[in-house]
Write the structure tokens for this entry.
Amino acid sequence: MINQEDFFKKIVAHAKEYGFVFQSSEIYDGLSAVYDYGQNGVELKNNIRNYWWKSMVQMHENIVGLDAAIFMHPTTWKASGHVDAFNDPLIDNKDSKKRYRADVLVEDHLAKIEGKINKEVDKAAKRFGESFDKEQFISTNPRVVEYLAQSETIRKRLYGAMDTNNLNEIKTLIEDLEIVCPISGSRNWTDVRQFNLMFSTQMGATSEGANQIFLRPETAQGIFVNYLNVQKTSRMKIPFGIAQTGKAFRNEIIARQFIFRMREFEQMEMQFFVRPGEEIKWYDYWKKERIRWHLSLGIPEEKYRFHDHEKLAHYANAAADIEFDFPFGFKELEGIHSRTDFDLGAHQQHSGKKMQYFDPELNESYVPYVVETSIGLDRMFLAMLSNAYQEEALEDGSTRVVLKLPAILAPYKIAILPLMKKDGLPDKAREILAQLQPDFMCHFEEKDAIGKRYRRHDAIGTPYCVTVDHQTLEDNTVTLRDRDSMQQERVDAGALRKIIADKLRPVV
Ligand code: GAP
């Protein structure tokens, strides 16, 4: 059985080998936590984005789209709280000159204690066999009880210090726990400082006249500052939503796990404007709606779980993450937040423009409350890729690597393959290609043995292969091969468009 780390390495290698994801500027040794999407990656990414857009905008009469600019007036970020509070605590090791997130150093230490607990549990489970009672062991074994008490104390100190912005206490905690730098092995730490995650640049031709502006760290604020424009021009009535997809930028201190945590990434966000007092009803609605969307792709339910936030951001009165079982464990994929009237209220205050809505049913005006759904497109890409990757042993003793992507998301829907490069088969295959190409992403391939071509398409997740052979010339039938079952059926070439369209009908 392959371990999770090796499995993840295989996915990263596969993503590169098959043109899904490349390191940015690789020829110059790459740029950390920035990635480019290759010929197959861009298709998968577009398909995920379209599937989201269709579900949010096309299928909801009361949601409209928006494409706001990345650059925004600098006051936007003052109002949103990002200038003052979008920080991570960082610490440097003076010997290795390496920079770390101070809270993550402590969390890694906590993970080590958890590892020790798991080791004790595994040992005892082996020793006691079937009669092993895990709950009882954890609550009574002196060593485990001690580890749990240690974790609890560390957690309280860390989160207490984070809540009160007590940076000295975080440093003292790192010293007390004798945490060493993984590179230098030393405990020679600087003080902990707050580090703002926003990237900034200058707008204007000369440096004297230049204005510092930020690259947006979330797309949400583009929606809030356009709330009035969209509401008035669309004549939407509350409750209604505005959806947007686009790039966001964060100067993440620790960027790891491939495209899970990037410095330039893409978000798909929707802000739903509701009556004050009705936000929790809509928050519950969107939690259900969003998990339904994920499951509509046919991914097993056990791959997802909700994590309800106990500690809420100052602007939220309810928040939950949808976590996905990535190759490195359950991690946040999407956030659903009840953001109250914080954002519109703050923009009203900073801009002096009224962000109020006149509710004709209530005959009163108010600043709407907001329920947000926010999913990282790149994280969704990684979730789909890691869920799809399989190595299958075949009856003939060989193995195939197959991406069992939901067909609706696959880069190519159909591979059109003349069995041989002669006897008029390529011409006939091109005829069929011309019929299908306007509706589906098709790939025409005539090189190599047919088995090899099937393997190549398995590896990029093409759900259907159409093979044109000598019989096609006689009766216009082709074989249609299913990627997952590898079964082939003989069908009329003229019926292909309908057969495949039926198979690909989205369940958004
Ligand atoms: N507007 C709310 C917001 O931005 P968030 O939890 O900070 O909330 C939302 O981000 C989603 O964006 C996350 O659930 C995640 O999928 C994605 N995301 C956040 N930071 C990311 C990063 N550095 N790299 C890739 N995706 C990221």
